[in-house]
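User: Structure tokens for this complex, please. No commentary.
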Amino acid sequence: MNPNPSSTLFPLNMLPIRQSAVIAELSGAEYIKNSLFSLGFMPGISVICVGESPHGDPRAYLIRGCIIALRITDSQNILVREV
Amino acid sequence: MHKLKKTIALVGNPNVGKSTLFNRLTGMHQHTGNWSGKTVSLARGCFSTETVLYELVDLPGTYSLIPHSAEEEVTRDFLCMEQYDMVIVVCDATCLERNLLLTLQVTSVCPHVLLCVNLMDEAEKKGIHIHLKHLEKQLGIPVVGTAARKRNGLKELTKHLRQTSCTAPENAGSKSLNKSVEFSEDDTLLFSELATELSLEVISYKNSDYQKKDRVLDSIFTGKHTAYPVMLLLLALIFWLTIVGANYPSSLLSTFFHWGENKLYGLFSTLQAPSWLISLLVTGVYRVLTWIVSVMLPPMAIFFPLFTLLEDIGYLPRIAYNLDCPLKKCSACGKQALTMTMGFGCNAVGVTGCRIIASPRERLIAILTNSFVPCNGRFPTLITLITLFFIGSKTGLTGSLCAALALTGFILLSVLMTFAASKFLSATILRGQRSFFSLELPPYRRPKLGNILIRSVLDRTVFVLGRAVTVAVPAGIVIWAMANIPAGSGTLLSFTAETLDPFARVMGLDGVILLAFILGMPANEIVLPIILMAYSATGSLTEIDNLKYFKELLTDNGWTVRTALCTCLFSLMHWPCATTLLTVQKETGSLKWTLLSFFLPTVCGILACALVNIILS
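Assistant:
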């Protein structure tokens, strides 16, 4: 299950539904980063996209056993790699 | 014997059952619900064992000790600045890993921490097993597993509390940390690694697909093609059940109160009370009071439990999830959908609930627009007018279905107006950047029907009704006085109504209706009774159990479908009630915003009514 370091990074909002990925790094403003941290979005953690709202935004992610919905503008700050 | 007093703080992520645990331990009735942010300010309660009196402090849920919103700040400030003896960190057993992040932060700053892993029953149902003993060893603090809703593990919890309070130095007393808490990014990453490692060691899953049922439900409740139809259907269904179910008990109550009125008359006559006093107390106070009880109690006793049911299942956050995109287009926060649904019960509660919105700008938008959503006090007016004017001669099932659909239509209008007003505010005086938004979608939980009934009927219904009754007594006296004090050619009531009349006509109303809305400011429930009283020559509130007579009275006074429509619109959009205004003042701390919360819906209402009046005439 080790993340493959050679695979390319892409923003979390591009993760297809029912696919999983591992968080590589967080970018963006400090307060967004802190908010994401306290929700459990941290490097090395695996995340699954479990669905999207009827409008396609926000989308819901399973992380550390919880479902958290994030808007695309915010989840763009989370870079993930395929597992 | 003098008991030792210990202060204990309850800390944890949102929606892990802190308030349920608090209620179970103290025997109090804090509101609980299956969504993040139900508790927005701290609550205190006490319970005692043979030797110790414990004061329990229920803190708003937080994900981290680095606060992002007003409610999270309350928690951080309490932990850092206030005096307490011990902290209980409450965790959700179904998603322990994320909960451990906060636990690690708290244990790193506070001495005497006890970990309570709650919702063990839910975890068990999902095949999640947690090795509590191992967790205890690794964390080095006492760990107790509980299922607070079922009262499991509470004895063990108090046993641990007693032990810990015994080991603490006798004379130490409660201490405050009196320091600010800072975590560097390295700390955060370290906690993250620790939490992941720990959870790998202590959590085992019997079946890894434990969330499958939830995802199926989500695909219905939040699916592209099903989300909105399901939302509308549920709304219409709740209204239909409320309208149908309230009919019978309402007429029963009003018959009962009518009987009581005759008895009361008899009693006063035997006591030889002066006739003006009888008139004031019986036709003034008693009638307003009983009208409110018989008209409001049955719908509330049905509406609130149904609403609580949705809340308990975990549906409300899904509404916020569905509506976030349109709200984002209005530069508002998706969580505003939650405060709007709270507004259905009571706008003042909705305004307080806006504390869950982190960004001050988005929170203000939610506060200022909350009263566009009709509260429970306005439903009786809407339902009565719909029944009289909009469903024609349909009766029985068709009639009640039409009424429910018409009411749903009005609610949709109020939601659209909330969006429009939010958009207007964010484009003019409350311009600014959209802020970070996150929303937790909790697992669906099977509701406990007994709890729901007891909680919603006893706590909420009685609370709202109690408030309405407190307002109704003085209002009844004022209305009675106005209807009996002579002024000009008639009474003070008729004189004031005539003065307001020209302005009211522009909006498709008349002077009496407008006056009723003004006098109804303390509580919206009494608007319709005032209208009736002003129309009927008796100078006191009339019974409206006979709807046919009631409609005749209205049409005799020039009511048409247009008048009814304008009255409904004005009921949706006018100044918030006095309690809501006071709450806005308290929450914003500014007269300017309070005034705006007064004028924003009022101006919208005047414009909408005038527009409808012009189009239809």
